[in-house]
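#dry-run=false #mode=assembly
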Amino acid sequence: MVQLALVIDLNVCVGCHACVTSCKQWNTSSGYAGALPDDNPYGADPTGVFFNRVQTYEVGAFPNTDTVHLPKSCLHCEDPPCVPVCPTGASHKREEDGIVLVNYDKCIGCKYCSWACPYGAREFDEHEKVMKKCTLCVDRIYDEKIPEAERKPSCVIACPASARIFGDVHDPESEASKMIQKNNGFSLMPEHGTKPANQYLPRANRSGD
Amino acid sequence: MHPAFSVIFLTTLIGVAQGLFTALMIGQTYELSDSSLNFGNDFYSIGAVLVLFFMGGGLIASFFHLGRPERAWRSVMMWRTSWLSREVIAIPFFMAVTFFYAYLQYTGAQASTTLLVGLIGVIASFILFYCTGMIYACLTFLREWATPLTIVNFILFGTASGFAFAAFYASISAPELISIYASFSIVLTLLGWATRIWTLRRNAALKPKTTTQTAIGAKHSQVRQVSQGQMGGSYNTREFFHHKTAATVKKVKSAFLILAFPIPVVLLFLGMGAESSFILLLAFVTQYVGLLAERWYFFAQVNHPQNLYYQTIS
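#status=ok
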């Protein structure tokens, strides 16, 4: 079974937010997800829906600290807790490629799936009144009108540092799988047994530098 | 979590309804056990209509929770996996049985028939309690909810408030039942008080499984967020934080621990002795207000793991 996912190299991410803005741009203009709305973007209290956010942490004790940028979108869990709780079946995991999606025509906007996601990966669209989330650019990766090299999620193409690797993590020969194997890829909050498909490559230990 | 008033009213109102239906059946059983008693069919049919009234109120409140209420019918689809879906089926089923019971009592059907339908209704109401509780208890990583105590509390608070209302109702139309209903409510309220305090203690002692370390995969013991990635708020900062001070949350806790339990017990006791409709109504209203506060706290107390990603703006 294919499980498409992202592998994000935390050694490489510089926290530029290009993945955030390109995601917003693609998913607002592509039409599949509908516009990802913003309210008061230039006002006093701006807010908006994003599928991907970069959050920054300081790890370690001063002066020996690391600044870690953590880009986070839906992790397309292999055992997604958001799917079984959905009362309508709008929230589902695709058999063919493991992408977790919301059918926006079936969603009743009860928000229960967002409670069931420990990662806060789902964001409610106050304009369309349905739950939204990363689609792994499902409307792009299979589009044969796009040159083959660009049939990747928008965030992957946008990343100037190539910190994001897209591929089938169930195929041991894929670049994504090889990177996970080689660099001890890890998942977020493994204690909940959600088995996130998206993996992160840890900061290399540079104490010997 | 941000407490949604739609869900607070839904869960408390249907709790009253479910308790009231059980109270009606206790009343009918008591009536049949003593041939000198006769409360009349109207007592039961009007009582069942009151059950439907509380259920309807809860149902109306629940629609305010939905972004797309016109699609609500779809929520019966995933009953195989979703406790919310099961609740959505259990609610109309319980209401249909209650309606049928009211109809049978209204038309003067035989006691054996009404008892059978009533028994099905009581079973349906407890299935509904279980579904409602499991909606919260099944979310294993929301550890404040993931305990059988959640279901026990829903059952005890619902039945206690339902019997309190039944005591008031009996004071108007079947005074012989006041002491039974009030006594039931007192016992259930005291039990609920105990299990709620037990739950508070349990939750206070919870050690978080998820830490900033596991949330971002850092090994170092010292980790702090320096940016959440945006200056403004988002769904994540609105839905999963209550945005109230710790002092307010504490006040709500103190309020519900007094309003929902000891005061109603005293009022029920006094109302039972004086057979006073006013005191019994006051007991019910006080308890209901207390349970609203309890349900608010039930949501506010939950520390969602996603909050670890929203610790600081920048």
